[in-house]
User: What shape does this take?
Amino acid sequence: MTPTNNNLFPILDFATDLAYRAGSLLRAGLEHDRGVELKGRSNLVTNVDRASEALLVATLRDRYPEHRILAEEGSTADGNGAYTWLIDPLDGTNNYAHGFPFFSVSLGLLYNDEPVLGVIYDPIRHELFSGVRGAGARCNGRRLQVSTTPRLNAAMLTTGFPYNRFTRTDNNLAEFSRILLQAQDVRRPGSAALDLCYVAAGRTDGHWELELHPWDVAAGALILIEAGGQLSDWNGQRWTPWNDRLVATNGAIHKDLLEALQ
Ligand code: IPD
Ligand code: CA
Ligand code: CA
Assistant: This one.
């Protein structure tokens, strides 16, 4: 079934409800032993990542058996339709493991590899960001619009660093040092999904990162585009959820940020 507002809006309602349920689980889990395990030196997973993924995947499989699913902690579903869910059950696990209150649940939906719907929930601030292709982006029902910041030297940016930064030289430190001296300021919040929502909401003006996975950014990318933002890879070429390098901005500073990355 080709995506139209008529069939995407019921999916949005379902995904919104599901993101609230997973978010409650994350919020409740903060009060208990989070069962932190290492996947790499700074790459963590908790019991709550797994519990959230189990809830999301089982519920989606049940409701949409024809949809494919790819989720960060390894769950998949091989539906035979053209829709694919990209799921991050807890984006910002390092923050979560330390009790730093900035993390989210991210649900992105592709149709033939093109993002058509995104839902990202921040259960600490109770902010539900969503976007539907062609129908705009919202936070708790309020329409989102990117900032009008015109230049890099007036821009507030965010970024992130790859988990394997200890063993690779292209680990974003050189770019970070350079851009920190060109922008108004740079933050490293720790949830790429929320970082993209913050650009969409005009709270920041741009985000760049490398070594991203499709479940980190599929939903946020659609939300940003629907809020009037711009996305590309680091060379200014077309971005797809399978690109691991992303530049996401308000559009006005896109060219300057790409130049600063070269
Ligand atoms: C991570 C976060 C972080 C980003 C990393 C991601 P995770 O996701 O989005 O902000 O810098 O690249 O892997 O592991 O917390 O789901
Ligand atoms: Ca993630
Ligand atoms: Ca995750």
Q: What stands out?
A: The first strand starts at residue 37 and ends at 38.
